Amino acid sequence: MIDKVKKELEIRFPLLKLVREQHNYLHVKVGATSAMDAVLTAKTSLGFTTLQLISAVDWMENNAFQVTWILENYSEQEVLLISAYFPRKNCVVPSLSQIWPAASAFEREIYEMFGISFPGNPREGEDFLLEGWKDIPPMRRDFETEEYAMRTFGERQPREHIDPRQYIGDVVGEWNTPMGRNREEEK
Amino acid sequence: MVKALAVFLPLLGAFINAWLPGKHSKASRFVSYTVLTAGLAFVVLLSIQLGAWNLADLSNSVIFHSGVGSPPLSINLEITAGGTLAALAMYAAVIFSIHRFALHTPKSQPLILAMLTASLGLLFATDIFNSFVFLEIGSIATIGLTAASRCGSRWEAAIKVALVSGLVTILYLLAVAVLYRSTGMLTMAALGSLSGGAAVLVSILLLTVIVTELKAFPLAGWGLDFYQGASSNVAGLYSATWSLAVLMWAAKVLPLLPIGNPIIYAWIGAGGLVLSQLAGLRAGSAGRILGYSTSAYASLLLVAAGTTTGAFYTRTVLVLMVFSSLSKFSLFMLGNPWKNRGWSGYGTVLMLIPVLLLAGIPPLPVFWAKFAFLKHLALHFPVVFYAVLAGLFLEAVYLFRFWADRSEKISVKAFSKPSAVAGVFIILVAAIWITQLWWGQLDFSGSIIASSTLRNIFHALFAAGTLLCLPGVFKRIGSERNYWFWLLISGASLTLLPAAGNGITFYILWEISAFAAVVGVSKGTGARNGAFWYAVFASFSGYLLLAGILLSRGSFVMAGLPALLMTLAALVKLGQFGTHLWNVRTYPAAPGTMPAYLSGTASKAAVLLLVAVALNATGGALPWGRAMAWAGALTALAGAVLAALAPDYKKLLAYASVSQIGYILVGLGLASILGWTAALYHTVHHMIFKMALFLGAASVLYRTGTTRFNNLGGLVKKMPWTFAFTLIAVISFAGIPPLAGFGGKWLLYNGLVEAGWLPILIVAMFASVVAFLYSYRLLHGVFLGQLSPKNAHAKEAPLALLLPQGILAASIMVLGFKPTLLLNILVPALKAIPGLSGLAPVIQGDMVLTTMGTWNAWMVGIMVMVVFGIAFVFYWISGHKPKYVGQLDIGFAGEMPPSADEVHYSNNFFRPYTRALAFLPRIHAEKIFCGVSKTFSMLGDGVRMLFTGDGRTYLAHSLLFLVLLFVFLNGGM
Amino acid sequence: MYCNHPPEKPGDKKEVLQKITNMARANSLWVTGYGTGCGAIELRPLGTSRFDMERFGIAMRPTPRQADVLIISGYLSTKTLKRVIRVYEQIQDPKYIMALGSCTINGGMYFDSYNTLNVLDKYLPVDVYVMGCMPRPESIIDGFSLLMKKIKEGRATGWKHYKENLDYYRENQKQIIKNWDLPDYNW
Amino acid sequence: MSAEYLFYWSMAATGLGLVLIGLWGVLTRKHILRIALAFTLADTGVNLILVWSGFLPNRAAPIIDSSVTTVVDPLPQALVLTSIVIGVAVAALFVVVGVLASRKSGSADIRHMKELRW
Amino acid sequence: MLSNIMSILLTVFTALVWGLLLGGISRTVTAKIHGRMGPRVTQNFIDVWKLFRKTSSIHHGGMFWLAPMFRITGAIAVLLMVPVVVGQNITYNMSFAGDVFLLLYIMFFGCLGMALGAGNSGHPYAVIAVSRGLAQMSSYELSFSVAVVAIAVGLHTFRIEGIVAAQQAGISSWNIFRFPFASAGALIAFLPMQMAYPFGIVLAPQEIPIGPPTEYSSRFLSLMFSGRALFSVAKLLFFVNLLFGGASSWLSLLLKTFLLYMYTVVVSSVFPRFRTEQSIKFLWLVPTTLALVDLVRVML
């Protein structure tokens, strides 16, 4: 099944790169310009009629946002992920809210969290989770979370700081046993 | 000899006009006016000389010959007293309308004058052959006028007239030949000397000619087509001159025909009346509708000719025909759709007067003739009577529809103001003149309600109701027009109503109050539908009442059928479930305080009628009391449920009114002292609270401009006093004890238990509980909940509306705490009525006792007030000072409500109730009425298939009629 | 549309029958049914037959108007804080706040989040903290008994403090709620 | 039966026949001018009957001069004159209206003039 | 006169105390049925006192302000219209002033006031609850009035004293035995009257926070609670007089009302809740039919 989908996509989108494949799962990466085509093809010709999610990842080093559309073909129980890289500066991605009304909410969230704009979404810019946010979008990796929290919510109350990696490294053997924590306390 | 000028002056004018060059329209108009004025003056002089103005004796006449020798060589005219009046009408119509012809088709003036001459000639002709000549001139003038107008289908109309007049010529001349052959004479009197086969032949030929020319039912096709196709000017002029002349001529000829038993006219007329009016229901265009109405009056003439004789016949026919022709004339003139104006202008009233005239509503002149005529029919020809009544009602229905559809298109300019004023003046003068002739029949002794106490109660009720509506009449909004005049007329006649001493007086006052209210209602914004429904149901109830009165042979009401008919009339007027449609349409549409008047006061007229019927027919107990009580109980229930689901303040009140009236019916149906006490107590109480509520609605409407619940809410902040008075009224009608409403319910339930009518008791109790639903809906939907920002500008109602409400609310309080004030008057009066069964409630001080129950309103009231007062004082002095918060400061899951409109719960208020009721089949009364109207429409469609539009069909109709008549008459002989 | 009067400053005047009233207040704690964070899940068992809070006269009320106690059950995001402020101010005096979990004390594991406040007491007056992440129902009952004790002794005066220092709290609240669109005073 | 009487009755029969033919024509013809013609025919028949109604056997026409003493009833003849005049006028009007109507409806067929009906 | 006033005051006071106590008992009993310990029996007194002593409160307008008074007035009015102890004429209070019809209608006084207050609060949930409550009320009143009419007509009197007096010839003369069907109908109608489950749609804390009194707080709520306690005692008293032969002494009065109250408590704690339209249909069908059986019997 998923092979057919893959072949079909490969024929239509020569720049397609395969990320991961399972018997009912396919993750492909396409060029930024053909991303919309791929998503629409998947919907109209390949039967992926459900939009499960739109997600985004900030690849700051590559100076790109990766936007992924997760589609589902419910009758065949198949999932198709289509990813594309978009340049990070003034990132603009076409909106899907006319095709899937549900996309509107995902896009608003991504706009709020990453600042990726989806022109064509009628509700773009409305508050989603962050009411009245004025800083740079918090999910961008150049956003200094801790510094922001200090600035906004004040210094944290002093507390003994334990580096979890080091702590877990010391007790890692016992930690893996079910009662590890209790034994550590007994010591 | 000079008098003949009255007839021939127009002819002279026609000749002069015809020779004038067409461009000089001013000159021709001058000639026309001069000629017409002179002719009119002559006719007036003649009528005075002949004493025509005293309708009692119309037998005077002057005969004179023109030309040489004696008839038939000379033209021989008999100017009768009645004829002069008809001639007067013709002259008046031509004078009123000629300027319109001058505007549009200046060259048609000779034709108009020729038509007038022909009409006058036919009116006065005594010779059969002379009549023929005038008939032909009339036909030619009609064809010419039709063809000269500027209407799209004028040619077709003209050709149909020409076809029929061709046939008429042939048949008529055949009859002339046979007549002359048999008698050697051609005067009308010669008809009487015919005998044997010649008599039959002449009769059927002339009858066919007459029926065809009259446009009476089976042969009406060409006339309808003509009215539809001709321009309204031509049709109007035609109906006022030529049509009237033919009617009067037929009235002259018909009794002379040697046909044997004239009852055959009545059968033709009555059958034709019903069938043609059925078809008329489906007529579409204005001209055709009025054509059907013409046909109705032609049929009426046939009925009159068949059933009456002598001076009575002459008078009846004269009044009916002259005024109906004039009304049709004015309707044609008004119904000209030139300019589209809003509904509820002067046009509505201007147009309603002729419509009411046609429908025979008192005190307009036609009524008197119709009443006398119908009375005669009811006494001697009952079957014809029913048929005529049915036909007249159907006619009223489509005329009112016509009015409702058309009158918004009237431009007052079309009927220039001086002539409109003159027309109204003429009608008024005629009304007064004719009324004084019959004035002696009226009786204001109040003898139909023997008990003066009851009479006084009703007098007071009607007077108070009208007076309390009056202060607010100028608080109108939007496009509502002045209605106070009509309210006053209606109220005044209602106030007189209990004083009526006989049927005709009662009927006249009843109809005046109803139709003055119709005019009042039509002044509202978008009241077309409401006014139409009110008019139809009011006339239906009026006709039922009329039938009841007329069938009672002189007394007010007789037991049996008349009483049943009158009961039905009252039920329709009350809005008994099934006929509640008019309440629900009319009350919301009526302007300002009008609905308060209609629901609170005017509906009590029907209660009065029921009381009067019960008292006079059987002395109290109507045989169908139980059915009435059931009907009332079911009305109460259905009205309450529908009220709870209504989306509009006024509509809710309308349904509530329907519901509350059900209790009155139950009480009257009981026919026991307790039941009547309850009914009358509730009548008084209903008037009080319903007026308070509707005045409250008027205040809300005045301040906010809407009565939709969706747009209201929260007004208690803006209109606290209105709310307080409404609250008192609501608590009262919900029947919650310390206020007045409980009394009615308590008395009613006791009465029902006493009579053992427990199922009705259960239904009534259930209905009273459902009343809580709509009472809360009303209070919440308008006054409680969130105040919409749209109504933020609203303020307290003006004093003119508030003061009457205050008075009413105060009287509710008084009646609630001291119901014995009213009961002490009611109970002795009802005890004195012998026909009522059961025991009277015993009143000891404040205590009211029945065999099973007790009620001490004073103690209950005091107890509630004391407890309430203690709680209040305790509250006050315990140092509790709650903080007043804004309306959006509500616990809303931590959110701020987005807007007041969105948190105001108003749509689908009793949704669970609707769901629970979903198992009921949705039988809408509306659907039943739709079914009835569809059936009638189908019948009408079937009938009007006769009129195929092919001119030859009409000729075939006439010939077939001739043959059938021949077969029938020969078979009869 | 909204009430604009500032609250009256509650004085220290002794009421008649103060002691009885305090007893009554302590033994009839009505809790607003408002779960702000993950700790709300631990409130549900309180009503069951195992823990049965009704034996202390504690009852859940669905509307703040009738409640006495507001339980902040765990971390509080800025978005929720806005609603909590409104709910708290709609509760009639005397009223108490019980804060559950370490998040309300110093931010807990969300101390460096961009959206979660660290120290609740800066924004709303807390009467009783219950520690734990999450506190078990037993701990909450313990917290209630502490609250009852404080009330009986007349020491649970957080609401008075809030009213007297409303400006201070408002300032703190406005600092983290960026688009402050609440009415000045909620009643 | 003398020739006079034969003439007398045949006159009536002819008149009646003309009327019947005319009526038949009116009812069955479709062309508007034919209908006009049929009317004229029937009109003629009626006029004949009218004349017949004043006919007295063995009398002369009522043209009064010295030689004639017994004339038929003169009145119907006078009537017939009127009737003929009127008939001509009506027929002329009919034809005019018919022609104009057929121009309007585009056909002289009376079945096409059914705009106004019901 | 003075003794009458004393009797009225005594009646009201007793009813208040007994009503609150019954409320507490019912909470305890419900808790026991759930397998919980439950609150103290005096918990309702504590709640009422606490609410009464809250230091601030809000109101939304005149009707909101007056509603608790309407409620309490309605409750007391009903209470005073019913004879308390049979035979002790002094405790008949105001029952001479009206009959069962008056009682049936004066019961709405408090409900209407409550509904108006809820409406004035401007809270949509309060109004939704009122709409449900009115819909349900109109249904149970049907069966209740059928039952009352059947009994009253069967005994040939509408006076409550008369109805009570007719039941004094031993237990078998109680109306619950003489009119078993009507009584069954009335007893089913009693459940929604007390807002007990399965007819507790009006106070639905889960969906429409607590129904009509959503916006009520502090002293208003305290008065409302008292009013409710009084009202339920008044209704119990009415039912005891109507069906259970009245009370010959204060003790038997307490016993009978207690047992009757326990009936609603037990039923309501074991049944789930009807939706509004289900409850309406049930009330139209079952208790009404039952009561009609006796009505037909009486008519024949």
What does this structure look like?
- The complex is a heteropentamer of chains A (187), B (973), C (187), D (118) and E (300).
- Chain A contains seven helices and five strands.
- Chain A has 187 residues and is of the alpha+beta class.
- Chain A has two domains: 155 residues, Beta Polymerase, domain 2, CATH 3.30.460.80; 28 residues, no CATH class.
- Chain A has a five-stranded mixed β-sheet with strand order 1-2-5-4-3.
- The longest helix of chain A is centred in the middle third of the chain and has 12 residues.
- Chain B is mostly helical and 973 residues long.
- Chain B folds into three domains: 460 residues, no CATH class; 152 residues, no CATH class; 297 residues, no CATH class.
- Chain B has 37 helices and six strands.
- In chain B, strands 3-4-5 form a three-stranded antiparallel β-sheet. Chain B has a two-stranded antiparallel sheet with strand order 1-2.
- In chain B, a hairpin with an 8-residue loop joins β1 and β2.
- The two termini of chain B are 45 Å apart.
- Chain C has one domain: Rossmann fold (3-Layer(aba) Sandwich).
- The longest helix of chain C has 16 residues.
- The mean pLDDT of chain C is 87.
- Chain E has 300 residues and is mainly alpha-helical.
- Helices cover 70% and strands 1% of the residues of chain E.
- In chain E, α4 runs antiparallel to α5.
- Chain E is globular and about 55 Å long.
- The mean pLDDT of chain E is 88.
- Chains in contact: A-C, B-C, B-D, B-E, C-E.
- Chains B and E meet through α29, α30, α31, β5 and α34 of B and β1, α3, α4, α5 and α9 of E.
- β6 of chain B pairs parallel with β1 of chain E.
Secondary structure layout:
The complex is a heteropentamer of chains A (187), B (973), C (187), D (118) and E (300).
Chain A (H helix, E strand, L loop, with lengths): L1 H11 L4 E6 L2 E6 L4 H10 L5 E10 L4 E10 L4 E10 L15 H12 L30 H9 L10 H7 L1 H4 L4 H7 L1
Parallel strand pairs in A: 2-5
Antiparallel strand pairs in A: 1-2, 3-4, 4-5
Chain B lengths: L4 H15 L5 H26 L10 E6 L8 E6 H24 L4 H16 L3 H21 L5 H30 L12 H19 L6 H9 L2 H9 L1 H12 L9 H19 L4 H22 L2 H25 L11 H14 L5 H16 L1 H25 L10 H22 L13 H18 L14 H13 L6 H19 L6 H24 L9 H14 L6 H9 L4 H9 L1 H14 L7 H20 L4 H22 L2 H32 L15 H14 L7 H15 L2 H25 L16 H19 L2 H12 L10 E3 L2 E3 L4 E3 H21 L5 E2 L26 H6 L8 H20 L6 H22 L1
Antiparallel strand pairs in B: 1-2, 3-4, 4-5
Helix pairs in contact in B: 1-2, 1-4, 2-3, 3-4, 3-13, 4-5, 4-10, 5-6, 6-7, 6-8, 6-37, 7-37, 8-12, 9-10, 9-13, 10-13, 11-12, 11-16, 11-36, 12-13, 12-16, 13-14, 13-15, 14-16, 15-16, 15-21, 16-21, 18-19, 18-24, 18-28, 19-20, 19-24, 20-21, 20-24, 21-22, 21-23, 22-25, 23-24, 23-27, 24-28, ...
Chain D lengths: L2 H26 L3 H22 L20 H32 L13
Helix pairs in contact in D: 1-2, 2-3
